[in-house]
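Field reference: "sequence" (input) and "structure" (output). Example, Signal transduction histidine-protein kinase/phosphatase MprB:
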Amino acid sequence: MRYRGTLAGRITLVCLAVAGIAVIVAGFVAARLIRTTADNVLQTSLSAQADVVASQLDETGIGNRLGVGKVADVVRGQGISVVVRRAGGQPAGDAVSVQAAAKAGLGARRSERVVVAGSQYLVETRPVGTRGAAFALVLPARNAETTQRALVRNILFALGIGLLVAAAAGFASGRLLGRPLRRAAAAAGSLRAGRRDVRVPVEGPREVAEVAGSLNSLADALAHSEARQRDFLLSVSHELRTPLTAVTGFAEAIADGVASGDDAQRAGQTIQREAQRLERLVTDLLELARLGADEFRLDVTTLDLGALLRDCAEVWQLRCARENVQLQVFAPAGPVPVTADARRLHQVVDGLAENALRVTPAGAPMVFALSVSGSDACLSVRDGGPGLAPEDYPVAFERGVLNARYRDRRPVGSGIGLALVHGLVTRMGGALTAGPAPEGGAAFTITLPLAASTATVPIPRP
């Protein structure tokens, strides 16, 4: 696995890069500005000195070697050369300075930058008197280059200091920001190890605090989910144990010869009935497990929901009659086309009807009702039983919830039937809701969108 580095290290590198780029850019900009400023300052200073010299000299001073010598001595210490042209004479001074003064225009008041033999010079020329005398002050531009080299040294020094400060600041910031993330990583490791009581302090920057909050929410969700799974497993184990106990007991009675004749027949019937109960429970568990898998497929067609309801009612009419429960069916006369899997929809109605009949007392009604509302078809299975507490309707389709709450008070199923039918209806693009019924019990309503076409297929029997 490739090593990706720590957060502190990355922040340190980023701070170093930002500081380095900032210092280099600022240095280049400052170098250009200071170079231009230095040249202007030198030119202005040289111009001021030329004005001072011009105010001290006249044609007599130009002609007097002593006067010119004093001027030369004063400015020579600053690296400035003096070029003098007396009235009617030729410029006097070193050759390079004379050439620079000539290029600048000796005889007029000028401030120029000239190039002689590849070197730059700042030149200030001033006329003296009215008979053609003049002088020039010539300063090599090397001073500006010296200033620039000093600036580069200062920039490099500032760069070093800036990088050190950036490294320290980046490392400290990285450690500070990484601390809550390290705590979150440690908590995630504890969650992976099976602990569910770990929590991370929600602190630090907003993004880091969001990570901590999400991890705490994940821990809560895992704890809740595992608690529900434990309750569900307890419920399923209870449902499995009851028929297994009956099957084992009667099988032993037959094997030991205790049950014979009519008793053996009744024992065999009991074993068969409990085995079928176990088969239904195992089938429901497998269906519920497959429901969330990608390979679960539906055979979706356009069917007549009214015909499916009447077909289901024909089967349940006999079962209700045996329990002295009156089955009432309300459905439109015409077809109600919907798009669904006919076999799975039959399974849903049968599951809801089985739950309803289980809690409906003798003499109370059970109702199949189909209606059309706008672009939806609504199929309800209602009972006249005791119903559910208001707070139980929202959680009616959660696995094992109703089983855990009501198994000590009334007949209950395995705890997975309602979860299964809810999953099936949802996979078919419909909705399943629970609420109180007008008959006094509970009502479970399937809502499916009406199909665009009225062509339907035969309803297969379960």
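The domain at 300-449 is CATH 3.30.565.10 (Heat Shock Protein 90).
Residues 16 and 166 are 5 Å apart (CA to CA).
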